[in-house]
Amino acid sequence: MLYIELENSRVPALGFGTWKLRDREARTAIADALDLGYRHIDTAQIYENEAEVGAGIADADVDRDDIFLTTKVWPSNFAYRKLVASTEESLRKLKTEVVDLLLLHWPNDEVELEESLDALQEVQHAGKTRHIGVSNFPPSLLRRALDIAPGLVNNQVEYHPHLSQETLLDVVRERGLFLTSYSPIAHGTVFDESVVQEIAEAHGKGPAQVVLRWHLQQDRVAAIPKAASAEHRRANFDIFDFELSDDEMQRIHGLARDDGRMVDPDFAPDWED
Length: 273
Fold this sequence. Notes:
This protein is of the alpha/beta class and 273 residues long. The protein has ten helices and ten strands. An eight-stranded parallel beta sheet has the order 3-4-5-6-7-8-9-10. Strands 1-2 form a two-stranded antiparallel sheet.
């Protein structure tokens, strides 16, 4: 396993995402992922699966202290009291007294950023989360958030070979954060790229394994692929026995394109800001 070092914590660079996993499928997938060796689990209030994630963790024969667990607060809970109360609810569902990382899921113009970050810091000071961060924050908004709460350690965003995050990564590395890539394989669309196919063939690996390895070889980058099938969970974890060359890394970086963003809801921020 590769790790990202934080103060008092090590974050497994490869995590397991749970978006769209529900009910028994979510519980089974979590337990199986942990049995396979995953030690970084990502969920969110809006995923409506925190209870199943907690149950899956309880089912697995893995000590809770060995798991880096992330959840995210939905924007409707960003007001101070709502954020504190909803975090307590998340902890109850997850069957844990503390999460390792708590994020603001999307920017919310209807609540002052200072209020949300004050609440996030209060939850941290109360021992309910070890680390705090944000998600889907473009570079300028991340800098503003860091001015308010210098203790932020993470920004979770869409990142894959079709979508460059170079500017955001500059801020992340400059300020000692790490970036978590969601949709890291671009819903499989990058598998058709001849560059990815050629590199995969050269290493005797699949395209998804190559793309995930590309993420993990970048400084301060973690990736959280979701895999509903046991076969894909195993394949995604089998990426620690090979290494991409500098040339291969650059060839994959070269796949970035202007229309590469896949997640852009109506309430999204100005990504170029």
